[in-house]
Amino acid sequence: MLTIGITGGIGSGKSTVTDFFAQLGIAIVDADIVARNIVAPGTACLEKIALHFGPHILDHNGHLNRRKLRDIIFTQPSERAWLEQLTHPLIQEATQHALSLTTSPYRIYTAPLLLEVGQNTRVDRVLIVDVPEALQLARAGARDGATSESIRAIMNSQWSREQRLAKADDIIDNSRDITHTKTQVETLHQQYLKL
Ligand code: ADP
Predict the structure, then answer these.
(1) Could you report the per-residue pLDDT of 76-120, keeping only the tens digit for each?
(2) Which of 17, 26, 142, 188 has its CA 20 to 30 A from that of 5?
(3) Residues contacting residue 143 through CB under 8 Å, at least 6 positions apart
(4) What ranges do the domains of the chain cover?
(5) 81 lines ligand 1 (CB under 6 A)
């Protein structure tokens, strides 16, 4: 089955575009949701993380405290490596499983770091959701109530606009109004149905 990989920088409009495809009946597998599910309370993976880092890595509801974990792995590369050797194979397996369950005419895999982690080789086409950086900052800021500094930090951990666009098979320009974006999704949808 044809798999379209959707990616784009923070605030570019990946969720917005993905929602439009979902409204057209297309199955979506979201890398963020897969990654969250494998460390849900009660999973063997979360148990191993709590054993390794200590119980303070969980919040009072038994959920992973992602902020704490992020702080540790950003400053300690060996801890990051430990976490990745645990989670990456599980994420891979869960993604494959989720994709195997899809039944729509084609399917979408959406991942903020599709290109950065080399997952573009696992999809048939790369669709980039594109906006100028100033719009990324404005929209992500309005959505998250975050400072432009913290959004910049995330942008700096992602590929640049130019790097991304160089890998695109298809591009959605999300710099104008929502209707303009929806029309582009509908056009691509018709093309994908024919592939
Ligand atoms: P991403 O998933 O790439 O981080 P989102 O789809 O969440 O981006 O979009 C970021 C913010 O911008 C959201 O609040 C969304 O509602 C808004 N947004 C997305 N596309 C447009 C658009 N074409 N015009 C105005 N606002 C938009």
Answers:
(1) 999 999 999 999 999 999 999 999 999 999 999 999 999 998 999
(2) 142
(3) 11
(4) 3-194
(5) no
Write the DSSP string, 108-159: EEE-TTTTTTTGGGGSSEEEEEE--HHHHHHHHHHHH---HHHHHHHHHTS-
Torsion angles phi and psi, residue 21, rounded to 5: -65, -40
Q: Which two tokens stand for residue 36?
A: 């969250």
Residue 83 CB partners (closer than 8 Å, separation 6+):
49, 69, 73
Which residue's C-alpha comes closest to atom 13 of ligand 1?
143
| Distance from Cα 131 to the centre of ligand 1, integer Å | 10
Q: Any idea which residue has 């494998």 for tokens?
A: 38
Fold of 3-194: Rossmann fold (3.40.50)
How long is the chain? 195
Q: Are 160 and 3 in contact (CB under 8 A)?
A: no
